[in-house]
Design a protein that fits this description.
Chain A: One of its GO terms (molecular function) is iron ion binding. The structure holds two protein chains of two kinds. Chain A is of the alpha+beta class. Chain A has two helices and four strands; from the N terminus they run βαββαβ. In chain B, helix 7 runs antiparallel to helix 10. Chain B is 23% helix and 24% strand. The chains are: A alpha+beta, B alpha/beta.
Chain lengths: 76, 479
């Protein structure tokens, strides 16, 4: 894993206008997303390694509302 | 598949896109041709009956992304394949065009079913499948203040009715079943009836259209319950039929979708795989009966699996054994489903808002009424109780390229290692089953299958605020 400068590298965000908190992302990417007992979705914005990267991509693909947005270099 | 090969993907919906994406992820470096009959690149079709028809999303904003630096696909949009020749390995297109392939992925999806007697030539009688369909419905709504009517009490019918109320239009939902969404269990069914009443959407259940009155200015419906409705638009949402006409005469079995083996290869062709709604395959997690699954997430997962299997070849391919998942939003309620509820003979209430579906004393499906957090735990539980069978590859020393995991559809190693739950008697005893469920679930301690759980599933519901709690925002954990 090459060293990345702060601010670089792949990042994710969630479109709150679309997200309806189904938690499919938490199922696909448990290391990135967490749907808490309070119904809130928490997530890491930086993807630090290949595992979380692949998980996050799968969460973005399966999101029912297509609310997961990925930015930056996506080749892992 | 080898270098320089050409893979043709027929169908440019979500399944076609995800299949192409997976081929490139697996380093397939041949040519990919993606053929679609719509003029648009793949978009998020579930929005057609919701955000698009309400006008809260624009058509230009609903395209699907891929997550690769370069997808490198040749698009053939606005072209409908007319014929498939599996012997010559050629698909035929209008105008005499033909396209050879080394591998074919068929993902043409389904088309809304026609209601006999419905005057589809009337511009106010519509279906909801494409972006253009949703725009046409919006034009009808803008042209008249009369109520909207939707025929069909399935997911799309209910979603459309809720969408109409959301934008302040009167709507009547007509269905011949006794209650909307009855196959999701009584809890969901009574919940949606209540929600429609609360939002003043009208229901005409156990009814059908006796006469259509289609004039130049208006469309009217005379129902079997003697109601007369005059509508601005009538949407037909009575299910769908697989779009497989183009395979007629190809030798494939297209009696209901395309008959496949458990690995999604079309029966009778070793270079054709099927993805999405048209694949009729035996999901070995449940049994050996081939069935179709018309869910959006299944299109994503089956497309990726089909792409993997096509690259590996039939002998080293792996069976596709997902736990199907589906969702819908009706008004502010999130409805979710997992497994195969349609197989069940009986239902049982597992927890507040969670219905279990039982076949032969085994849990085969779950539906939930606005309980997404609890649903995560119950889906893990269903995965543990209904694990994908261990696959023993055929004893042929084939060069096995590294198989990427199919996320979530396979049980986690922990789930496999967990004790196999005691089987219930094959003669189903409802009371004994409920006792067993209570003793197993009420006192369940978190197992290794879901170590992330802070609390056992049953307490998860108590901790969750009721339907009154507004959906909260997603919170980035920034750094």
């Amino acid at each position: 894993m090459p060293f990345r400068l702060p601010g670089g590298g792949p990042r994710i965000s969630v479109d709150n206008d679309r997200c309806e908190l189904y938690g499919i992302c938490a199922m696909e990417a448990p290391d990135v997303f967490d749907l808490g007992q309070d119904g809130r979705l928490r997530f890491h914005t930086r993807l630090l390694d290949e595992t979380t990267m692949e998980q996050a991509k799968m969460a973005a693909r399966c999101c029912p509302m297509q609310a997961v947005v990925m930015r930056g270099e996506l080749d892992g | 598949m080898a270098d320089g090969d050409r893979i043709v993907i027929v169908g440019a919906g979500v399944a076609g896109l995800r299949a192409a994406e997976r081929l490139r992820e697996q380093n397939f470096d041949g040519e990919i041709v993606l053929i679609g009959d719509e003029a648009r690149r793949p978009y998020h079709r579930p929005m057609v009956s919701k955000a698009l028809v309400m006008g809260t999303e624009r058509p230009s904003d609903v395209g699907l992304s891929h997550y690769l630096p370069d997808l490198d696909v040749h698009w053939r949009l606005g072209a409908r394949v007319t014929h498939l020749d599996t012997t010559e390995r050629v698909v035929h297109l209008p105008g005499g065009e033909s396209l050879w392939y080394d591998g074919l992925i068929a993902a043409t999806g389904v088309y809304p079913r026609h209601l006999p007697g419905a005057p589809r030539h009337d511009p106010r009688v519509r279906i909801l499948r494409t972006v253009e369909d949703s725009m046409a419905v919006r034009r009808c709504l803008n042209a008249s203040k009369k109520p909207a009517v939707v025929i069909g009490a399935g997911l799309i019918g209910n979603e459309f009715a809720a969408s109409m109320r959301h934008i302040g239009r009167d709507v009547t939902l007509i269905g011949h079943a006794k209650a909307p969404l009855h196959r999701f269990g009584d809890r969901v069914s009574s919940g949606i009836v209540e929600a429609h009443h609360e939002h003043r959407a009208k229901l005409a259940m156990k009814s059908e259209v006796r006469h259509w009155i289609s004039t130049k200015d208006t469309v009217g419906l005379h129902l079997t319950n003697n109601q007369l409705l005059v509508a601005s638009v009538v949407v037909l949402a009575i299910g769908s039929v697989p779009s497989v006409d183009w395979m007629r005469g190809s030798g494939l079995d297209i009696s209901d979708g395309v008959l496949c083996d458990s690995k999604l290869f079309a029966e009778g062709a070793s270079d054709v795989v099927i993805a999405g709604d048209i694949a009729r395959w035996p999901n070995l997690r449940f049994d050996e009966t081939p069935r179709r699954v018309e869910h959006w997430i299944n299109a994503v997962e089956s497309a990726r699996h089909a792409a993997d299997n096509l690259l590996m070849g039939q002998s080293s391919a792996k069976p596709f054994t997902p736990l199907p998942r589906a969702w819908s939003t009706l008004y502010d309620t999130r409805l979710q489903m997992c497994g195969m509820p349609s197989l069940a003979e009986d239902t049982v209430t597992l927890a507040d808002g969670i219905t279990g579906f039982i076949r032969d004393g085994r849990l085969v499906g779950i539906s939930s009424w606005d309980k997404p957090r609890a649903m995560l735990d119950w889906m893990a539980e269903l995965d543990r109780r209904l694990p994908a069978p261990d696959y023993v590859p055929e004893p042929e020393p084939a060069p096995a390229p590294e198989v990427a995991e199919v996320p979530t559809v396979e049980p986690s190693p922990a789930a496999l290692a967990a004790d196999v739950p005691p089987e219930f008697d094959s003669g189903f005893d409802h009371q004994a089953f409920e006792r067993e469920f209570e003793s197993e679930f009420a006192n369940d301690i978190p197992t290794t299958a879901f170590p992330a759980l802070a609390a056992p599933p049953t307490t998860a519901f108590a901790a969750q605020p009721g339907a009154a709690a507004p959906p909260t925002m997603a919170i980035p954990i920034g750094r």
